[in-house]
Amino acid sequence: MAIRDMNDLVQSGLDRSIELMTVAAHNSFRFSNRNTVKIVSLGKEEIAAVGEFCYSLADMSPLAARDGRFVMELIKEPCGLLLLGDKRKSDFNYNCGACGYKTCSEMNKAEVVESLTAWGPSCQFKNININIATNAAASTAWRMGLHCRVFSTLGMGAFALKMIEDVDLVVSVSVSAAKNDPYFDRHKYWTKEHWDETFQKEFPTFTRGFIGAVEDEGTFKI
User: Fold this and answer.
1) C-alpha dist (Å) from residue 205 to 16, 62, 66, 120
2) Residue-wise pLDDT tens for the chain (222 aa)?
């Protein structure tokens, strides 16, 4: 029997864990039993590219920039990123009105709005389905002892870089097998003074926030 060292075992276990997270997300509950969520995983090279893209958004999205800087530290130890996406249009025909349109048909025919975070308008139940799948993947990671965090910023970065195709909505689950949990130390990239300054600058508009999804921030000022 061959002797395998810890680093080899950890990396192999991480790779297998990401596969099992995918199975859990794939098998999670769906409204109307429609399993249309698409799932891909990224390696360190792709994760680094997503981080660099997010960091480049500093003027538009302070949160994306912070998380992009965080990624550069994350990839120094074993890690992975799972992307979960879906199309925005409804195939449920619930006509619930949650999207802001009276019928699914009306929403599906509406002009596409391309934003940094996703393309809309989107079906509420598509969003719920993708979040159910995301929660299934994250909870599986936790059960296997992985450090884990759900990111919208890294998801939108991967979406912009077309690392997951034929989707309009994307969420990411970041996992790590680092010696210490990296996801509870992200505040180190901002001092309290910088946090207060950025919060005051970005949040009064209630549009761009930390994400930067709305280009015309003057439209919705209160």
Assistant:
1) 44, 15, 20, 21
2) 689 999 999 999 999 999 999 999 999 988 888 889 999 999 999 999 999 999 999 888 888 888 999 999 999 999 999 999 999 999 999 999 999 999 999 999 999 999 888 999 999 999 999 999 999 999 999 999 999 999 999 999 999 999 999 999 999 999 999 999 999 765 666 677 776 776 676 655 544 445 554 444 454 443
Between CA 54 and CA 65 the distance in angstroms is 5
15: tokens are: 């790779």
Using CA atoms, how far apart are residues 54 and 99, in angstroms rounded to an integer?
28
- Tokens 């690392």 — which residue? 163
Q: What is the DSSP letter of 112?
A: P
Distance of alpha carbon 50 from alpha carbon 44, whole angstroms: 10
Amino acid (one-letter) located at 147: H
The residue with tokens 């599986």 is: 140
* Nearest Cα residue to 90 out of 115, 127, 39: 127
* Tokens matching residue 47: 């994760």
Q: Which CATH class is domain 6-205?
A: alpha beta
Sorted by sequence, the CB contacts under 8 Å of residue 152 that are 6+ apart come out as: 117, 171, 172, 211
